[in-house]
Amino acid sequence: MNSYPSELLNQLAPVMFVAGLEDLTLQPPQTPTRTTAPQDPFAALSTRLREVLLSQRKAAIWQPEKNRTFKVLLADKDMRFPPRKVEDPQTHTMHSPLSPLTPTSPMYPDGLISPFWIRKHTTLVPAVFVIFMRIYESPVQQPRSPLDVPDADREREREVEERRRDTELASDIAQRKKHMNEYGVKLTVVLLASRRMLDDPALDARLTFIRRQSGLDPRAALFVLSPVSQAEIGDFVRSLQDALYEPAVEYYTNHSKRVRRKRNKHSQTASSYPLPMSPIGAAGTTPRPLRPEGWTVRYEYKMACFAEFRGEDEIALKHYQDAYSSLLIMFGSTAILPPRTKRWSEARVLADCINVKICKLYLYNNEHSLALAHHNSHIRRFADFCRGWGVGEETFEFWAWLARQHRILAELLEEGTKSTLKIPSHFRTPSQTAALIAAHTLDSSTSQRTLMEAETQRLLGVNPMQALQHPGFYYYMAARCTERRRERFLSALESETATATPAYATEKKVDHLAVMVELYTKAHDNFKHFRTAGNQGHDRFILWIVNKIAETYCMQRKYQVAVRFFERIARTYRHEGWTSLLLPLLLTWYQCAQQLGDMELSVRLLIEMLSHGAGYRRDDPDAMQEDLMAVLKSTVPSSTNKPLVIEPSESEPILESCIVFWKPDVNVGEAAPFQISLTAPSGVSMSALPFTTLTVEFSADIPPIVVQHSLGDNGQALSQVRKIDLGLISISASPQKDKLEARVVEGVLRWGPGHTVVLAGALLSDTPRTLSIIKVELTLQEGSWTIQFPLQLIKPRHRHPIISRWLVSSQPPRFTPITWESYSELHIHHRPHKIQVSLAHHAPAYLGEEYPIVVEVCNTDERELDMVMDVLLQPTEYDEAVNYISVDDQRSSSLIKGVSLGVIPPGASLLKTIYLCSSGVAGDRTIDISVQSRSTATPEPSSPASPSLSADISLVDKGETLQTLVVSAVEAFKLEHDVTYRRSLRPQPGPSDLRTFDADYWDDRDGGEAIVASTFVCSGPSSVAVEAIKLIREDGAYAKVVDCSVEDDTDVLAEWLPGDEFCGSCRVSLAPGDELEEDEGIPGPGAYEITWRRVLLDGERGSPSTSRFSLPPLRPPTDGLIALLDTPPIARLHEPITIRLTIRNRHPSRSANVTVHLETEATDSFVVAGLRSGRLPILLPGTEEQILWRLIPIECGYVKVPRIRVVDRRRAVEQAQGGQGPLPDSESEADAVRIVDIRWDVKDASASVKTARISMDDSTRKGEPIILVVP
Amino acid sequence: MPPQLRLNAVAFVSPQNHPILIRTFGQQRQDELKYHYIAHTSLDVIDERIAAAATSKSTECYLSLLYTMEDVAVYGYITPLKVKIIIALALSDAVVRDADVITIFRALHTAYRHSVANPFLKLNAPADGVNDHASLLLAGSAQWKGFRRRVDEIGRAVGAIPPGGI
């Protein structure tokens, strides 16, 4: 920005001159009578006023805000403005002293516009002139006493004095006013008065007098101010400017009008404008006067400036554009503006400055793409012009100019972004774009153009040239252009053709590199400033620019700084694997290191470049190592006693290394082969590097292996894959004695491009341990240099997936890939113990018995083993199954741990019996048997709680043999119950029988009796000796066992063979109470208990076991209305017998209306005495009625009892009473009541409540009651 | 008809920001480095854009114009599996239609997918697939020519001259 005159760039604002403030500060206190205040209030006031006025507007390029403020300059009270016009002595016309028509003007005769003109309007002539003056104040007369009358004389004297002073003031003002009027400048007077004065009633009159006398304008020309606070000063200044802004705008409008008039007049008379003709020969010496185009530029530029003064940006923009296009016309012709003249360069500066102004005005309005479009076209047009002028792209002038253009745009944007300018984002997600469009349609006030622009952008895309970016990009461009400028300059320097030009002389003074550093630094700062907060330090742009800065420092020979920069950059490039970026950086870095004489660093960098292999000087793979060897040979390290260690932590390792153990686990005394393959990068040769040794270090106390370089067959070329045999490395149990002795092997340690050296060996250990290779280190010795390369053995870098591979054969080389996981570690174990565990038992096990399982442990190993057994009974999935195991005297429901089997010598075996006792449900039982063996050769770990326990465990020679046994447990007996029920035959107590209320009354009216017949089956596969069977009674509230058949039966106590059955029965009296839920059975009132022993295969009997079988739950059926017929089974001929029919109403709620018919027939074998047909009294629920007949048999044999019919008429009666349906036709319509012969009274358990109420008896057994009549 | 786009360079960058393939078209050798830098610095802007897209829950692959620098305009694209594709177009003072750029990106993405689908890339990789992205990087290595060929074909279709002759 400094390369252009600031007048042409700065934002213009109305100018206000302020005078009279200095006088006040300089004036000594006027009234000596008053007590000397620490500071005169007026002096303080003026100081503050000056501060406020001067600070409100600074000269700056970017000032888009329109807040009606002035650019304030302090001026002398008596200053005179420069003359508006001077007389041309030749033509005797009046022209401005800056006009090209004035011979004394710097613009004479053909200048366009000069910064002086702007300066004139910004510093010499204001729009408004404000003058601060003190109004006279007569000293205060302190009344001597309150009673004093005002002294009339004194008053009069005072008035006269005031009038005199005011007149002086007014004439002073009038004189100034006159001068201002000539220039059209508004004069405003601020009268300073004390607070007391403001309250003086005479003040108004005095002010009016002064204004009239001085001829000031009636509006905004006279202010009165008294010393006030800071805030009030601000208010005053604001109101002062507000009042004066209009006149200022008017002032500049007048200027515009004047210029426009001149322009119009000029354009009309342009053709006839008197052009002083000059002799043709003197054309070169006498400059020609300004062309009409020039005048247009001049006028348009002036109008633009005046519009800018007024703050009318749109108008200013238009005039600037007009001026710019006229300028382009002028540049278009070398006749108008001959290149490389003073006027030409002035015009170029003007064009550049107008371009900046136009861009700025566009940017004020947020029209980024228009601004950039203008800037780009400016660059393009002038680049074209430059070619025509002979300052094209091959000259440093061109690049200097281009750099200046980019820089000024960057600076403009930087200024802008500091205040109001926002850099737009060119990335919008679809939703954002939609929201933007919606916002545009809502906000109709937005100009149509921006809406269109957004629409176009959404539909089509952006013109990348017109996408505004943050100033860092433009600074970067400027720096790049400066770089080119320097290149061109240097080439010009070589050719010495351009050294004569004056441009060269100035160019020579330019420190290009400093400018580049400055520009890059600015770009760097901007990139840093504009990066998003979420970007976690990955500032790749910044790195790029830092790289550029470092390169520039290199050129400046500031190597120390550059090296620091390179260090920082290289870290990211290495980390992200951008080798292509890293290599040029390393090269430059290496050059710096060479220049600095830092040999260690040079070596490090060379080695890093070497390790990156291809990509560096592709044509010559040997170049790198030659460089390195040259360095090593010609220099000495800074300290010879310490080797230089190249850590591979950050950079690529010089050799890619890969360690593979063929098997991850081996036994003690078994050789474990391993390979270490070291591969050189392809594309670069390091065959000349004199590696001397390669050290392989193992974990634990294994002595390291050193491979020493030995030149094998000298003449033969090195093959692509070579193998160095390390041999068998056996690790002795006591490693202490030869700990330091390293094994030395010889091999060729030279690598051509892409060569692989495989170190193959095998490890043999007699103690169990975990082994790995912890370090592989190459050592290089050359002269006084000793360089160590520890190779990276941890997981290979993720971006270079090294495939672990195993060299199968070296001639021809063939690898097999290692695809399993743990190939980098070797675990050595003890040999497993050889133990046989066999189990003997006779399945299935019976529930309830102690089932023996014989475990035979046999030591088939050649070692003596100490064994311990654990037995675990797995829990079953049946909840009620309670199982346990017992070994010796230990008993557990789950785990028996640590049953010692003692030390078993080789070949010996040991038997142990485990008893399994299962109960509950039949099913499989699972037992895990674990036999742990420990070799007696190794000592037991001293203390299990020692901290090194985990380390010790692998060392103890231990083994474990597992056996899992599944035993199915079955029941020894199966039991089936068959239950039948009988009605109670006892007479029923009446509904109000008090006995039934006794607590111990056994009410079996409903229940009757149940007969449980139980069948025991010996269901198991082996015989069982039954020792006892008994029924354990558990009489409950609703049921009790009356008698049982097994109790005194001794026949059953014998040996039962599989399939044998035995039956027992018992009688149970039932008294289901009201509380009993009907669908819930009565629990069986007892259980059979069988004590038995299993008969083993050899005839022995097992341990006694007991099985228990509960009686089944009982569900007695219930009756409704029932008739029970009781007949004797046998009768004698002609001897009367009695038959009894009992009709019970067991219905819980319904009464019964019962009729009984005895139907005799002629064929009957009986003579009957009793009721033939009749109705019983109504049977209430729970009552019964008995009817008796006497029968005399008259026939022998099985004879039928006469047919008895019992009918419940209740339903029929109900229907008749209801009158709903037709009356039953006959009695058959009524419900017949079932007659049960109590001799056959057997019922099944009630299947459900419903059926129990209706059907009571098995219909198949139904038959006529029959009596045997004997003679 | 908008003016033909001129493709100067194409870069594929892995989700871990490692370069997979950088291909320049019709460039002098010393300028190739510039495109490596451009690809690398673009990652900054891409990160920024991804963050912006994440906040607005956008799943747009096309990241639009990243920046312009010197004589190129740089455009970015991110595949659903976070592979970044960057192209550098020669800067010309004309509107670049997003649709055209997206077409190029889609073609490049397809080329990438076809190349990564090569089962031989994983021939020697461990079966567990922990280093899965390593095989993606392998696709761009000199050993495998298919990817380069496909990218060059696209470049040729756009009118660029691939390095190493027609």
UniProtKB/TrEMBL annotation, chain A:
<keyword id="KW-0333">Golgi apparatus</keyword>
<feature type="region of interest" description="Disordered">
    <location>
        <begin position="257"/>
        <end position="287"/>
    </location>
</feature>
<feature type="compositionally biased region" description="Basic and acidic residues">
    <location>
        <begin position="151"/>
        <end position="166"/>
    </location>
</feature>
<feature type="compositionally biased region" description="Basic residues">
    <location>
        <begin position="257"/>
        <end position="266"/>
    </location>
</feature>
<dbReference type="InterPro" id="IPR025876">
    <property type="entry name" value="TRAPPC11_C"/>
</dbReference>
<feature type="region of interest" description="Disordered">
    <location>
        <begin position="142"/>
        <end position="166"/>
    </location>
</feature>
<dbReference type="InterPro" id="IPR012880">
    <property type="entry name" value="Gryzun"/>
</dbReference>
<keyword id="KW-0813">Transport</keyword>
<protein>
    <recommendedName>
        <fullName>Trafficking protein particle complex subunit 11</fullName>
    </recommendedName>
</protein>
<keyword id="KW-0931">ER-Golgi transport</keyword>
<dbReference type="GO" id="GO:0016192">
    <property type="term" value="P:vesicle-mediated transport"/>
</dbReference>
<dbReference type="Pfam" id="PF07919">
    <property type="entry name" value="Gryzun"/>
</dbReference>
<feature type="domain" description="Trafficking protein particle complex subunit 11">
    <location>
        <begin position="343"/>
        <end position="611"/>
    </location>
</feature>
<feature type="region of interest" description="Disordered">
    <location>
        <begin position="82"/>
        <end position="102"/>
    </location>
</feature>
<dbReference type="Pfam" id="PF11817">
    <property type="entry name" value="Foie-gras_1"/>
</dbReference>
<dbReference type="InterPro" id="IPR021773">
    <property type="entry name" value="TPC11"/>
</dbReference>
<dbReference type="Pfam" id="PF12742">
    <property type="entry name" value="Gryzun-like"/>
</dbReference>
<feature type="domain" description="Gryzun putative trafficking through Golgi">
    <location>
        <begin position="646"/>
        <end position="955"/>
    </location>
</feature>
<comment type="similarity">
    <text>Belongs to the TRAPPC11 family.</text>
</comment>
<dbReference type="GO" id="GO:0005794">
    <property type="term" value="C:Golgi apparatus"/>
</dbReference>
<feature type="domain" description="Trafficking protein particle complex subunit 11 C-terminal">
    <location>
        <begin position="1159"/>
        <end position="1206"/>
    </location>
</feature>
<comment type="function">
    <text>Involved in endoplasmic reticulum to Golgi apparatus trafficking at a very early stage.</text>
</comment>
Automatic annotation (TrEMBL), chain B:
<dbReference type="Pfam" id="PF04628">
    <property type="entry name" value="Sedlin_N"/>
</dbReference>
<dbReference type="InterPro" id="IPR044760">
    <property type="entry name" value="TRAPPC2L"/>
</dbReference>
<dbReference type="InterPro" id="IPR006722">
    <property type="entry name" value="Sedlin"/>
</dbReference>
<dbReference type="GO" id="GO:0006888">
    <property type="term" value="P:endoplasmic reticulum to Golgi vesicle-mediated transport"/>
</dbReference>
<protein>
    <recommendedName>
        <fullName>Trafficking protein particle complex subunit 2-like protein</fullName>
    </recommendedName>
</protein>
<comment type="similarity">
    <text>Belongs to the TRAPP small subunits family. Sedlin subfamily.</text>
</comment>
<dbReference type="GO" id="GO:0005737">
    <property type="term" value="C:cytoplasm"/>
</dbReference>
<dbReference type="InterPro" id="IPR011012">
    <property type="entry name" value="Longin-like_dom_sf"/>
</dbReference>
